[in-house]
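Quick one - first record:
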Amino acid sequence: MPLGRLILYVRDVEATIRFYEKHFGFKPHRQEGDRIVELLAPEGGANLMIHPAAKAQKMGQALVKLVFDVEHVEAFRARCVEKGLEFGPMHQADGCIFANAKDPSGNSISISSRAFRPKSGGDEPPPPEAVDQT
C-alpha cells in the first residue's frame, strides 16, 4: 500500500504553500469549507496536506524529515539558492549526496540522490540455484 499523504502542521499556511510550490513544484488544491490545503505532488508520490497548527503546537519538533528525490543534488541546490532557499552543506554517504534545509514552519526537508544510486546489496534477485547434474 503506497503512502499517499503527509500532514504538515504550520503557522503560516500561505507561506508554506508558496515554499513547496516554488521550490518543489507542488500544486495547491483547495476545497471550499476545508481548512486543509492539499499540495499535489508534481510527478507522483505523496501529497502534502497543509494544516493550520494549533496555538499549543510547537513548530519543528516532529522527528520526521521530508526527503525529495533529486538526481543532481548540487545543480538543484544551486537553483534553490537563486530562488532564496538556502540548504546546509552537501553530505556524501552510502553512495548518495544530500543536503538539508527547513521549510517556513521549521519542518526538516532534504534533497537526496539516494533513489538514483546504483543498485546493490540486496536489491537484485538472487542468482538461480545450481542444478544437480549427478
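second record:
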Amino acid sequence: MVNPTEPSETGYSEPDFWRKLNQFAILAGRNVVEKALTLYYAAQRPETPLWAKMVIYSSLAYFVLPTDALPDFMPFVGYTDDLGTIASALVTVAMSITPEVKATARQQVQAWFGDETVSSEHPQPGDTMREIPIE
C-alpha cells in the first residue's frame, strides 16, 4: 500500500496536501478547506476502514494534483470540481466522520480564517488580503 505521507508523482501525499492548503486556502475558500480538512482528519483515525481511507486519499489526490477538469486558477469556477470531488467523498465515507473529526476541522478553519460570522467566501471592497499561516 502507498504511504500517504510520502510524496507521490501520481497521487496524494501529505506534504502536497499541506502545501496546496497553504498556497490556495484563501482562493479555495473556507468551505473547500473545511471539507478537505474533515476528510484529512477522518483518514488519520485508526478506526477509519481501509476502503474509506482509499476514497479519502483519492479525493485529496484530486485536490492536490495540479491538473484537473477545471484549472484551479480560473476565477469563480476553479475549485468547483475539487469541491464536487470532496463532497462526493464526504457522502461516501460519512459513517467514518465523527463529531470529533468535524470539530477538529472546524477549529482549524476558524484558526486560519477567523470567526465564521465575520468571514465571507468572497472578498468585499476594502478587504485586506491576509496570509493564513499553515503549519
